Known about the structure:
Shape: elongated
Structural class: alpha+beta
Strand content: 15-25%
Number of strands: 7
Distance between the termini: 53 Å
Mean pLDDT: 83
Number of helices: 2
Order of helices and strands: EEEHEEEEH
Number of domains: 2
Strand order of the largest sheet: 2-1-3
Amino acid sequence: MDSTIYQGCKLDSIHPYGVLLVRIGADDPSFIAIGSRGQFPAYRDGFLEFRIHDADACLVDNAGTVTVTVGERDNLPSPSWWNGTCDDVNYSNAVHDSNGKPVHPYLITSWRGIQVCGPLPWTVSTPDHFVTFPGGSVEQEFECTELVKRYIYLGYGINAIHYRTNF
């Protein structure tokens, strides 16, 4: 069907004709094609603008309605192996300062319920706390790779893989 439509009616040649487009803010020149039941990440604050992929001059022959539902994604759960905010109970039992006192992690920020945590700099004198993900991957808690694997596991249900290389 796309090839039978006058191509001058397309706003962007890479998207199929008639697909639902969205952008955030009228000052953003690019639209994202979301189509039917599509989702997209809110890449900035602003008003949502939806339109059909059809140039303004070509809208005169269009008819019908489109219903759009906008919602927020739910927060993701804490990992089943966590105990307390930022896994405080497990972390402080495993990690201590130079005086032998437990080190408590602090919450830096969170997004969709994923807590980004860490110890205060220069407070840890014992080996870090390690967590084992479903799938067998072992990571130091609060390191970059652990945060990414935790998000992918909680958000998409994908088990972390263990990869080892020798450099």
